[in-house]
Amino acid sequence: MCADMDLIFLEVKPSVRPHFWLSPQGDMIGTGERSKASAFLSSHSLKTHGSPERMKMKLFNTLTQSLETFTPLDDTVRIYVCGVTPYDTTHLGHAFTYVSFDTLMRYLEYSGYKVRYVQNVTDIDDDVLRKARELGVAWDELGRRETERFLRDMDSLNVRRPAVYARATDEIQNIIEVVQTLVARGYAYVSEGCVFYSVKRDTDFGAMARAIGLEDYQSMLTIANERGNFPDDPRKKDPLDFVLWQAQAPGEPAWPSPWGPGRPGWHIECSSMVMHYLGPQIDIHGGGADLAFPHHTCEIAQSEHYTGKAPFSRFWAHTGMVYQDGEKMSKSLGNLTLVSDLLKSYSPDAIRIVLQNHHYRHPWECFEEDLKVATDTAELFQQVRALVGNETSGQDSMLHNRFKVAMDDDLDTPEALRLLREAAEKAVKNHDLAVGAEVLRLTQVLGLFGKK
Ligand code: ZN
What we know:
Layout: E1 3-4, H1 18-22, H2 36-49, E2 58-61, E3 66-69, E4 76-81, H3 92-110, E5 114-121, H4 126-135, H5 139-156, E6 164-167, H6 172-184, E7 188-191, E8 194-197, H7 207-211, H8 217-226, E9 242-247, E10 262-264, H9 266-278, E11 282-288, H10 292-307, E12 313-319, E13 322-324, E14 327-328, H11 339-345, H12 348-356, E15 364-365, H13 368-388, H14 397-408, H15 413-430, H16 433-445
Parallel strand pairs: 4-5, 4-11, 5-6, 11-12, 13-15
Antiparallel strand pairs: 1-15, 2-3, 7-8, 8-9, 9-10, 13-14
Zinc ion is lined by residues 82, 270, 295.
């Protein structure tokens, strides 16, 4: 069985288990237009259950470390999820993050909201350049190829693409404008063709870091150094300062800027894209748990001092790490389960179910037995589909309400699936078309039955 490795992981101060909270991961999905299936679901839910059902949903906010009632700024929920760095193929950890946010968006739409979803792809980055050199291919060709593979994998899992899938290399001018403003306001400084953000100048810096248990400067620096920070860079005033604009290194691609040729840092890319495509304040910012620090901590600092508005994001939602052989699944460790490999043996629905059988905030490890159980569940839902056929008008208000209670409780998909399995067994056993029709509708809210 799948082991929920530490069920309170994201709810406890990470000082209890800092290496869990803070290990690396992070990547995402996307598409803009609502699918026909989703349009059907929304219209059907309106017809069946009355006016758009504004949820009383609770979501866990990493920044406040508490469950809060979800209330968007207006009728359109603005969501940004940090995307992939395209230099390797999609593993189960990526899939967990993007399926989790796909499920959240489907549920928000089912509950009557419009959703505008933006995701980035970091197509210029140290890792992309290194991998391109190893493979002997052009960095931009590698980025295009790996981005396409990622999107294909996500399409296979019925993960809808964002409204905007923004590439870092298309965002350079906007990024430069944000960096210029931060320099002008004294939060950033120029040094030998680079621009760095000054953490000591920013007395607000680190609220997210403190929320996850990094209480002081030294603990922040230790984790930042594990995650790509170069503390000994002589161009920096302080080891924790982070790069906004990186001067061109020999042989690397570069774009012109007021500080000389170079390329943007990673953190500023996301801040710029959020503000460009969604505005100065958004409702939900998501990503893998390891992105809370330093990436999201830096995003908050840059964005709020650029716009003068806080909070940058109303909610910060982070997905738990996925483990394999007791270690976090990551490119750097090489212990990857690739989605494309799983799809050779298991159906897309079985893979989605195995992911949704774990709460989005919990770290977990997946075993083969889990995939077999999920395959059985997918087959059970197929039996319901065969039973119901075209008789899809039936309802089960009790099941519908219990499903909503589960999903409103911080997107409790494991409980929602348990309810649907139980109802599906009854529907098949009793040839109950009404219950079966409700089961079918709700499985589609979870994004199942996307692929025939
Ligand atoms: Zn990001």
